[in-house]
Amino acid sequence: MKRLKDKIAIITGAASGIGAATARRVAAEGARTVVADLNKDGAATVVEKIAAAGGTAMAVEVDLGDTDSVRAMVDSAVSAFGGLDILHNNAAATHLAARRDLPVAEADPAVWDETMRINLRGTMVAVQAAVPHMIARGGGSIINTSSGSGLAGDLSNPAYGASKAALINLTWYVATEFGKQGVRCNSITPGFIVTEASSGSAHGAIQDTMLRHHLTPRLGTPEDVAAAVVFLASDEAAFITGQTLGVDGGLLVHQPYVADMRRS
């Protein structure tokens, strides 16, 4: 039996990468799925793939930095499908992290503010808009995509990391506030996930370095994250809320010298 049969889901950042894989998997598990992204053409392509596989989905353009746009996304899902059961807050300001999120000593406060506006405030507004509809249907599941960057320091992207750490805290607050009304909220922390954006030739050395520090024999894929989201969205996780699930191949659970010890 499909684990998300008769459910209605919104996946943000779903035009590519983790979001696209999650939207396809959620739809394959039986949910009517809103594929939401700033890139509406990319979202439409994912919808076409879902439809070709026999699923039901619609594309919605959303700008997480725009409160009205986020609320309209939720309204579109409810209008089209009659309610809402699952919200996967996956979208993030990766364009800022990739080019403009400089180390703390050089950080631009404007980039910091924009990162928080999209990654953190946008998620809060999505939750705020979604929860009443979930309660009306007897409950629901919210899954926030945090990051390993929210659990440990690094040499770059401090605004991104701080926003992802804050998402874990927001997860606790949402789980606490709405648990008695049947709404669960959990977060996931992907490690290094191989996507189109991270698989170019320039990233080969980075991938080799990252693989040495994983406990698994391979790096992660978007499908690995999608599987975790489906589990947390399903009734199989009915007694799980306020938790952070690492989908990172064990990257952050060992002593920092393990990779060096193996090589020696």
From TrEMBL:
Keywords, comma-separated and alphabetical: Oxidoreductase
Gene3D superfamilies reported for this sequence: NAD(P)-binding Rossmann-like Domain (3.40.50.720)
| Keyword Oxidoreductase attributed | yes
The organism's superkingdom is given as Bacteria
Question: Could you say which enzyme class this protein belongs to?
Answer: oxidoreductase
- What GO molecular function terms would the record report? glucose 1-dehydrogenase [NAD(P)+] activity
Q: What is its EC number?
A: 1.1.1.47
Oxidoreductase is among the record's keywords = yes
Which Pfam families does its entry note?
adh_short_C2 (PF13561)
Q: Which family does it belong to?
A: Belongs to the short-chain dehydrogenases/reductases (SDR) family.
Q: Which NCBIfam families match?
A: PRK07231.1 (NF005559)
- State the protein's name: Glucose 1-dehydrogenase
This chain's source organism reads: Actinomadura physcomitrii
